[in-house]
Amino acid sequence: MKTQVAVLVTEPRPAARRRVPLLTTVGASLGLLVLLTIVIGPWLIGQDPYAIDIGNRFAGPGGAHWLGTDELGRDVASRIAYGARATALIAVGAVAIATAIAIPLGVLTGFLGGWVDLVVTRVVDLFFAIPSLLVAIGVIGLFGASVTTTVLALGLSYWPFYTRLIRSAVVGLRSRPNVDAARVLGASRLRVIRTEILTGLVPLVLVQTTVLLGFAILDEAALGFLGLGVQPPQASWGSRLAESREFILVHPELALVAGVPIVLAVFAMNLLSDSLRDRLDAKRTG
Amino acid sequence: MNDVKTAETVLRVRDLAVEFSLRGSVARAVDGVGFEVRAGEIVGMVGESGSGKSVTMLALLGLVPRPGRVVAGSVRLRDIELGALSLRELARLRGRQMALIPSDAGAALNPVTRIGSQVGEGLAAHLPELPRAERPARILDILKRVGLPRPEQQVRRYPHELSGGMQQRVAVAMGVQLGPDLLIADEPTTALDVTIQAQILQLLLDVREQSGTSILFITHDMTTVAEICDRVLVMYAGQIVESGPVVDVCTAPAHPYTRALLDAIPPLGGDPPERLTTIPGAPPDPRAWPAGCRFAERCRLREQLGNPDKCTSLAPELASDGAGRRSRCHFTGSAAEAVVR
Amino acid sequence: MSGESLLSVRGLVKDFRERGFGPGRTAVRAVDDVSFDVYPGETLGLVGESGSGKTTIGRLIVRLEEPTAGRIELRGQDLRGLSGRRSLEFRRDVQMIFQNTQNAFNPRRTVRSVLSDPYQIHRLASGAELEERIGGLLRRVGLTTPMLDRYPQQFSGGQRQRLGIARALAVQPALVVADEPVSGLDVSVQAQVLNLFAELRRELGLAMLFISHDLRAVYFLCERIAVLYLGRLVEIGPRRTLLEDPVHPYTRALIGSIPAFRPGGGFTRTVIKGEISDSEPVKAGCHFAPRCARWRELGQPARCREERPLLRPAAGGGLAACHFAESSPRPLDGVAELAGGIG
User: Which controlled-vocabulary keywords does the entry list (chain C) (predicted)?
Assistant: First the structure.
């Protein structure tokens, strides 16, 4: 019943430009804004994020201080911009660690199956059973709060779920006829993994990377808010949130300014992951 | 069904056209399709993928998916113009007066609802006047009629616990339980093993025999059409290219496409040929149908006639011979054709 | 059908265990003591309904599955426990063509990349020579070189099946196992692909095991046909004998249920009652007995339920596994040999 329609839709398409969905445009624009903030923001603002000016505390926006100053008279705009660098570094680092563990482990267990799968999957389940925040707090408690430990803490709390995701995707890919075809041609296991499995994981990994980046930004902020993340005076979105917390009743605008970039960045990542998913799915069938 | 020719018309389709707008281009998937189905008649609709047969079927059911839409034509079931109905009225009509038997019953049945409740849903929706207490007996009755073995046990089962053949029987039961005027069977046997295919076809024939239900049988398989249909419509590139009584069309096809389709069937018995007759090339792009005959590029008759310009410059009409056969070919039955044969 | 056999299958058994661990899992016998030969240049058709085990036999032969019991020999050499290098050589000898689905190809790899696989794995060609050979391969199956940079899902069903054929032929195998290669294709496209098979077989001297539920396609292409029912071989013989003079009641029913193309003849198919899944197969006896018309005609003899029928020479040069099939008094040489091998 669907054949006809499918045939119509899957006609080899000419180079005609595809209409970009509105939400993708919004997501990409926001993402670009965040990227610009990270790369040229500090330079553009031209203020020292660590310069304390006690005489000029809680100044409103305007003049040299675009977004005003904080409780120590530091420039809020430049603290956000420099903080973006730290937060981005943490997010990318955490996702990199999770990916570096999840892909090999997920591919190994999903592809080999048998007792390797059974043993490793149970171990993963064990980690999975520990709340990720607990893992993060444990790591930080062990090594002390810093950028490096935050990266480690988040990376270690993401890998179990990511490994399970990769594993189940590999189990699906492994039983596809194209894997049989490669085996019949005499391809070694490594080659099958390289040509048939890893290529098949590309869409999942792309989508998950964007999703996880969003999570990581949010979690960095949460850890910062709890005082477990990046420590003041070092700027990050999380530490900025923690600093503004104390004055939330008197100067709520500071918390707002600290929160909005987080919301926008996470929103951008979610939109981008959604549109990536749509696009890659369409490519798979079309 | 001897009185089929004089029987009243159940379904009348006129000039049906369906378009799909995709990325700025418009594909006219169904282009001016018209035909009738009379009471108690089994009409085969044959075509390959892209011929427009499935979209035609969806249009009859009012189920053309976006971005497609019916842009012209009329579909009348008895004396109801379907285009004039609201979605709600159309939904009421489907199931009661017109029912679909899907090609893959396993996918069409709800996986988390027991067979009995599933069949009962149709009763509840379309026959609310039937007392609730009488439903189970009615459900068992219909399942018995479609030859489902041990229906008392099957009603409590889930679709995945049934074999493909039994699922298809349940689908037939759901289609016929309200005594529709028209059954639309969409490749109902394609996914089944041959021995099960034979059972389901026999069942459809029985349904027609017992209830006088008309059946529009959509398929790509000419051999099945030849054995169970009264008349056949051959579709190519969004149009009907030939129609008529099955025996006539299958033994003396008027349109070169029909002939090619029949020739492509591998013969069974005797010494097999060195090679099968094939149709060269591929069907045209629905976004840019050719100006003349849509089959011209692949037509052996045209080649044998020395590629007359008429084929590529002038679109042939679906001409009737006055005796119930129609063919969309400039050279059908012409002296020229007699010579090349 | 005399001479050295290319592929020889003897007493092949494959059990599939239910998923999980530990005892108590029931095993399903998908292939039950099957024996046959494929001779050089010959195409053998393997027909049967779902659950007949035909696909499993194909997968066992190309070693995608390991047999539970029995031998598979290629040119007299047992395929079990081949070492790495010998195993790679075997892959060059025996190839497989898969059912035409989009999944037979990795949607993220271009045709060029997919068709490079066989040459790279077996170190047959690289660089300009690789390019040249892929081009030649593509032309051989009726496709054109500009298609090399497209993705499999941009092709039509027929074209994709040509790609599947090209992939299998790259290593110049002696035997090709084709699993439902034309099902799901339109009639006219199916005819094109069948013609391509016939051509390639003639030109390359390929032997083929052609697995299909479509008896018309099998009849066109295969000199001999083997019929399977619930994992067992019930009849095997030359195509004309099998079609025109089938011996086994299941073969008769199967052939009777194919639509005969006789416009105006009406619905003349044999409708066998029941389904494969209906009854638990009688392990000891004949699997088909519960549905067998002949068994009922004969007054339901106990022998059919108690004793497994073995393949015996039948009239017309074939073999059939039925206690009550009329057997031929003088079996042909090759057949007798095969029958002895199974005995």
Answer: ATP-binding, Nucleotide-binding, Transport
The answer to whether position B137 is within a domain reads: yes
Contact B23 A16 (CB under 8 A): yes
The DSSP call for residue B317 is P
Closest-CA distance of chain C to residue B300, Å: 14
Residue B255 is classified by DSSP as S
- Angle, vertex CA B200, rays to CA B197 and CA B201, nearest 5: 85
Rounded-to-integer distance, Cα C104 and Cα C148, Å: 17
User: Looking at the 3D structure of chain B, how many domains does it have?
Assistant: 1
Q: Which residues contact C339 (CB under 8 A, 6 or more apart)?
A: C311, C312, C313, C319, C331
B228: contact with C, CB 8 A cutoff = yes
Residues 76-135 of C with CB under 8 A from A: 87-88, 91-92, 94-96, 98-99, 101-109, 113, 117-118, 121-122
Q: Which residue of A has its CA nearest to C60?
A: A184
CB contact under 8 Å between C105 and A182, yes or no, is no
Query: What is the distance between the alpha carbons of residues C287 and C335, in angstroms, rounded to a whole number?
Result: 24
Q: Is residue C275 part of a domain?
A: yes
**Which residues does chain A have within 8 Å of residue C149's beta carbon, measured at their own beta carbons?**
none
Decide if C226 is inside a domain. no
Per the structure, the complete domain to which residue B150 belongs is given by 105-179
> Domain A77-285 is in which class?
mainly alpha
Q: What is the pLDDT along chain A (286 residues), one digit of tens a residue?
A: 333 333 333 333 433 445 677 888 888 888 888 888 888 888 888 788 888 888 887 777 777 777 888 787 788 888 888 888 889 999 999 999 999 999 999 999 999 888 889 998 899 888 888 887 788 888 888 988 888 889 999 998 899 999 999 999 999 999 899 999 999 999 999 999 999 999 999 989 999 999 999 999 999 888 888 888 888 788 888 888 888 888 888 888 888 888 888 888 889 988 988 888 887 765 554 3
Long-range contacts formed by C225-228: CB under 8 A, 24+ apart: C225/C44, C225/C45, C225/C46, C225/C47, C226/C36, C226/C44, C226/C45, C226/C46, C226/C47, C227/C47, C227/C48, C227/C251, C227/C254, C228/C34, C228/C46, C228/C47, C228/C48, C228/C52, C228/C53, C228/C54, C228/C57
- Residues A52 and A34: beta-carbon distance below 8 Å: no
The answer to whether residue C268 sits within a structural domain is: yes
* Number of domains forming the structure of chain C: 1
State whether C88 and A12 contact (CB < 8 Å): no
| Tens digits of residue pLDDT in B133-184 | 888 888 998 898 888 888 888 899 999 888 888 898 899 889 888 889 999 9
Chain A positions with Cβ closer than 8 Å to B: 1-5, 7-9, 11, 13, 16, 18-19
In a domain, C244, yes or no: yes
Contacts of B103 in chain A (CB under 8 A): 1
Exposed e or buried b for every residue in B167-195, given b needs 16+ CB within 10 A? Answer: bbbbbbbbbbbbebbbbbbbbbbbbbbbb
Asked whether residue B318 is domain-assigned, the answer is no
Is B286 in Cβ contact with A4 (below 8 Å)? Answer: no
Domains of chain A, by residue range, sit at 77-285
Sheet holding C224-229, edge to edge: C94-97, C175-179, C207-212, C43-47, C224-229, C232-238, C319-320, C312-313
Closest by Cα among C226, C229, C273, C275 to C250: C229
Q: Strand C43-47 vs strand C224-229: parallel, antiparallel, or unpaired?
A: parallel
